[in-house]
Write a structure and sequence with these properties.
It contains eight helices and seven strands; from the N terminus they run βαβαβαβαβαβααβα. The protein has 262 residues and is of the alpha/beta class. The model has no long low-confidence stretch (mean pLDDT 94). Bound molecules: NADP nicotinamide-adenine-dinucleotide phosphate.
Length: 262
């Protein structure tokens, strides 16, 4: 395959990406493959997993990251197939349950933590024990810009992603110098998970952003790729906002109102 990301120097390395059959995860797996890495992908729908693995000339495992056996099965598949596991991208997530916290069923609430926090930890543990402790590696956790503030209906998602952000920093401190652990925090990106947000109001959201558009999966993929590469060799415990300026949009909004002195 002709690589447009050859400069990232991932040729000969192996990467596992969860939630890789569509959206951001798929773009990440594609970018890693284009950079020369062998990829091992996972998601729940077996047909989509097979299709994605074939397309990227990699291997795939169908199943939920919430299944306690999935992390070992996924890292084991990568190690058996490619003989190594240099990169792990924890991308799969759930934004359920959605709604006010006073109506949240604790069992459903727990699922958000199982998928969004516990599974990434289990995957890092398996990657560490199976390969990275001895040979080094890079982990990127996909968080969210929304973990930095509260929002209506997203209490379970936001709280679990804030925990993932903290987990990223804790792991980074524990696993150096051999293993780097970072996160990316996307703003609104055009994917299935966020369709209910961008589809009804894309123009309005885009107009309010300093960079004038919502994100595309490749915007996030490029940031993940860079963090996985040796170009980021002195970066660990960092969170890279990839949000088109969402976090700083309030400043731009004020100037549009021609405030005195602005
Ligand atoms: N889109 C945004 O605006 C946005 C913003 C901030 C952060 N993010 C984060 O970006 C990441 C990717 O989201 P996305 O928007 O690309 O979502 P998406 O388009 O809905 O894709 C999600 C992917 O994860 C898989 N998946 C879902 N639940 C899974 C599970 N329990 N076990 C294994 N695989 C699972 C899906 O396939 P199956 O359904 O077949 O399992 C699919 O491949 C998530 O961590 C999300 O929180 C997204």
């Amino acid at each position: 395959m002709t690589s447009s990301y050859g400069q990232y120097g991932l040729r000969g390395r192996a990467a596992a990406v969860t939630g890789a059959t569509r959206g951001i995860g798929r773009a990440v797996a594609r970018a890693l493959a284009d950079a020369g890495a062998r990829v091992c992908v996972s998601a729940r729908d077996p047909d989509e997993v097979r299709r994605t693995a074939e397309e990227l000339d990699g291997v795939g495992l169908a199943g939920s990251v919430a299944d306690p056996g999935h992390p070992e099965a996924l890292t084991g598949l990568c190690l058996r197939t490619f003989g190594r596991l240099d990169v792990l991208v924890n991308n799969a997530a759930t934004n359920r349950p959605y709604g006010p916290l006073m109506a949240a069923d604790p069992d459903v609430w727990r699922e958000a933590f199982t998928v969004n926090v516990e599974a990434p930890l289990r995957l890092v543990q398996c990657a560490w024990h199976g390969w990275m402790r001895e040979h080094g590696g890079a982990v990127v956790n996909v968080c969210t810009e929304g973990a930095g503030h509260v929002g209506p209906g997203v209490g379970a998602y936001g709280t679990s992603k804030a925990a993932l952000l903290h987990l990223t920093q804790q792991l980074a401190g524990e696993l150096g110098p051999g293993v780097r652990v970072n996160s990316v925090s996307p703003g609104l990106v055009r994917t299935e998970m966020a369709r209910f947000v961008w589809e009804p109001g894309e123009e309005e959201v885009a107009a309010g952003l300093p960079l004038g558009r919502i994100g595309e999966p490749r915007d996030v993929a490029r940031a993940v790729l860079w963090l996985c590469s040796d170009e980021a060799e002195w970066i660990t415990g960092a969170d890279l906002l990839v949000d088109g300026g969402t976090r700083v949009r309030a400043a731009g909004t004020a100037s549009r109102y021609h405030l005195p002195g602005a």
